[in-house]
Design goal:
- By secondary structure, the chain is of the alpha/beta class.
- It has a single domain (about 1-185), classed as Flavodoxin domain (Rossmann fold), CATH 3.40.50.
- It contains eight helices and five strands; from the N terminus they run E-H-E-H-H-E-H-H-H-E-H-E-H.
- Helix 1 (about 15-30) runs parallel beside helix 8.
- The protein is globular.
Length: about 220
């Protein structure tokens, strides 16, 4: 399977990039494909009023590389991992813009909206966070937003890794070893057991299988 990993920091050599690179290594080591992209390579603008800038054929009129990345890289991928610094206790503007810009392609005004909606659903989704603060819930708002995005798209939120650092790539010095944890997260990204039960969900009384500890 294939995962697209997005480093959504304006710093190419920062902590988000280091975490994203580690997760990509892990995914590749597990035999899957990982594509690492940087938001500043293709994302140059925020969502606008589609009624004003949509082209006559219904396609998005914002002239940057987002459309190609979204349609040709994000949609075909079975998994998506976002790496973001924590800015003002939320995700970076680049990552928020990535999600917002998807509206142009799910709106009924887009001629292939049904295909896009179908391709958006059912992914495995992960999150990599970096912050200067060690406060345990400093990233809670971002985690919750990604969880809700996952629910909205019938996707699976696999989990998150949080590294502490401020200067460039300082997460490598975090004693909790977030780069190692991000790599391990990548290794099990497509195989990790996840659950998100509703009260009427069908499930057995056991979580782990009796023989090898793996969830059936």
């Amino acid at each position: 399977m294939k995962a697209m990993i997005l480093s959504a920091s304006p710093r190419r050599d920062g902590n988000s990039a280091a975490l994203a690179q580690a997760a990509a290594r892990g995914i590749r080591q597990s035999g899957h494909e990982a594509e690492l992209l940087y938001a500043d390579e293709f994302l140059e603008g925020f969502l606008r009023d589609c009624r004003q800038c949509r082209r006559e054929d219904g396609t998005c009129g914002i002239a940057d590389g987002f459309g190609d990345v979204f349609l040709d890289h994000y949609l075909p991928a079975e998994g998506f991992i976002a790496a973001t610094p924590i800015y003002w206790y939320g995700m970076s503007a680049q990552l928020k813009a990535f999600f917002d810009r998807a509206f142009c392609y799910v709106s009924a005004s887009y001629p292939e909206a049904d295909r896009v909606v179908n391709a958006l659903m059912g992914k495995r989704i992960g999150l990599l966070l970096s912050s200067e603060e060690t406060y345990p819930d400093v990233g809670a708002g971002i985690i919750h937003q990604i969880q809700e995005h996952s629910r909205y798209t019938n996707s699976t939120f696999v989990g998150h890794v949080h590294g502490i650092g401020n200067s460039r790539a300082e997460v490598a010095r975090d004693p909790s070893q977030p780069l190692k944890r991000a790599e391990e997260f990548g290794e099990r990204f497509f195989s990790a057991h996840t659950s998100d039960y509703r009260i009427d969900s069908e499930r057995s009384g056991k979580v782990w299988g009796p023989s090898d500890g793996a969830h059936a």
